[in-house]
Amino acid sequence: MSAVLYDVPGPRTRRRMLVYSVIGTALLLLVLVVAVQRLADNGVFRAGQWEPFTDPGIQRLLLQAMWSTVKAALVAIVLALLLGIVLVAGRLSDRRWLRTPATLVVEFFRAVPLVLLILFLFLGFGDQLAPLGRLVGSQVPNAFGALVVGLMLYNGAVLAEVFRAGIGAVPRGQSEAAYSLGLRKTQVMRLVLVPQAVRIMLPAIVSQCVVALKDTALGFIIGYEELLRQGRLIYT
């Protein structure tokens, strides 16, 4: 008996897979036990090691830092998704005067190191970007604005390519059939291609949003009160 993509394993293969799964799980548990034992030998689980985290001031500082991290990530992700939609619309346009600038923007911001981009925005446009930080109540609005706009530009350019690849992955016959029915390009994109492409590109979108969340740690270099900076402050 065969499935579409592979042959259904027989009884011997299933037994062999079960044995391998049991052995792999046992090895993983063994590694976990050894790791926990090594941590215990080094005193990681002693009460004194965790005593600073019982201090209300440190707890409050960590919670504020976590909220600052999440706040910057959420704003950056929303703006990056919107920017990605605008850029991919330009890249897929039939008009060259839209397609060329969109392509240049995508390729430029994908190539620029994110750290340098954030520093450039903070040092050159910190005051202009401060209203974005004040809008969400950030204690350092210029750093918030530079961090969020830097993340928006970089991740928006990456998401534009994700969107383009997802739309391009839809079988060509779908759009040809839609055009044969007399639909315009915007209707084909909105009614036929995008609904199918969302399922294809959703894992990549989620992955890039996680990257944006982790990249908020780069706010450390411009004094933004995210989790890494506040943790370093507690350690010091």
Walk me through the structure.
It is built from 9 helices and no strands. It is an all-alpha fold and 236 residues long. Helix 4 (96-111) packs across helix 6. The chain is flat.
Write a brief caption for the model.
This protein is mostly helical and about 240 residues long. The protein has helices at about 10-40, 45-50, 55-90, 95-110, 115-135, 140-170, 170-180, 185-215, 225-235.
- Globular, elongated, flat, extended or rod-shaped: what is the shape? flat
Strand content: under 5%
Unreliable runs: none
The DSSP helix count reads 9
Q: Please tell me how large the radius of gyration is.
A: 25 Å
- Average pLDDT metric: 89
Distance between the termini: 64 Å
Secondary-structure element order, as H and E? HHHHHHHHH
Oligomerization status of the protein chains: single chain
Main β sheet profile: none
Helix fraction, binned, reads over 70%
Number-wise, the strands total 0
Helix vs. strand class: mainly alpha
